[in-house]
């Protein structure tokens, strides 16, 4: 629940772990007497995998969330929604966002990078198996999160199209994630998904329990923290709308964990 200066922790880790995190800049967003600090740093700077880390520190103490997008380069709603989250102002707490975790695959528009499926490199109870996976896991652990979101998309719809998992939230087994997932699904289906798109109503998937080498399973198994793998479909849904829906889910979930987006006006 404590807010910490992420760049200071990451820079300290750089000296002993070899995980490349380089400070890039800090900006301050002001709304009246409110001040939010937004810091951008670079993960694995100078390599083909380099990508931005955006840390938002609210003016009031509160929980910390890590939000990851772009694990797969052919899932635009995930990284577009994470990019939107990284632009928010928040009332309390901290968000550490990695909007485009798998830059190589995003640039190519492919699911995999040159080391295979990035989201299969996080075995619970063991070290991540690639340099990029270890670097991203270092971001997660350095943030000491109270909640983690991993934003994805799928070609089809869960339980409608075989082998696809669109329109699903997979919560970790850790409480209160299952309850918050159910509540978020009900709210988003009521306020975001149009009534004339019944097949696009979100559902709750299986509980994530730490038995697969996925990022969210490692969060559940190694950190024992609430987490959510969010999947929005590409089926009869344009990427911009899918990203908006995904961002709405992220906003609702984070608010339930005490990290509320400030919507009182545009930052200047």
Q: TL;DR of this structure?
A:
With 268 residues, the chain is α/β, with parallel strands linked by helices.
Explain this structure to me?
This protein is α/β, with parallel strands linked by helices and 268 residues long. It contains seven helices and nine strands; from the N terminus they run αββββαβααββαβαβα. It has helices at residues 6-17, 76-85, 103-108, 131-143, 177-191, 215-223, 239-256; strands at residues 21-31, 34-43, 51-57, 60-69, 92-98, 147-154, 168-171, 203-204, 227-233. α2 (76-85) packs across α7 (239-256) and α5 packs across α7 (239-256). The longest helix has 18 residues, at 239-256. The radius of gyration is 17 Å and the shape is globular.
Which helices and strands, and how do they pair?
Elements: H1 6-17, E1 21-31, E2 34-43, E3 51-57, E4 60-69, H2 76-85, E5 92-98, H3 103-108, H4 131-143, E6 147-154, E7 168-171, H5 177-191, E8 203-204, H6 215-223, E9 227-233, H7 239-256
Parallel strand pairs: 4-5, 4-6, 6-9, 7-8
Antiparallel strand pairs: 1-2, 2-3, 3-5, 7-9
Task: Decide which structural class fits the backbone.
Answer: alpha/beta
CATH top level class name? Alpha Beta
Fraction of residues in helices? 25-40%
Molecular shape: globular
- What is the straight-line distance between the termini? 28 Å
SSE pattern: HEEEEHEHHEEHEHEH
Strand order of the largest sheet: 1-2-3-5-4-6-9-7-8
Pfam families: AstE_AspA_cat (PF24827)
Keywords: Hydrolase, Metal-binding, Zinc
Cofactor: Zn(2+)
Region (Disordered): 107-126
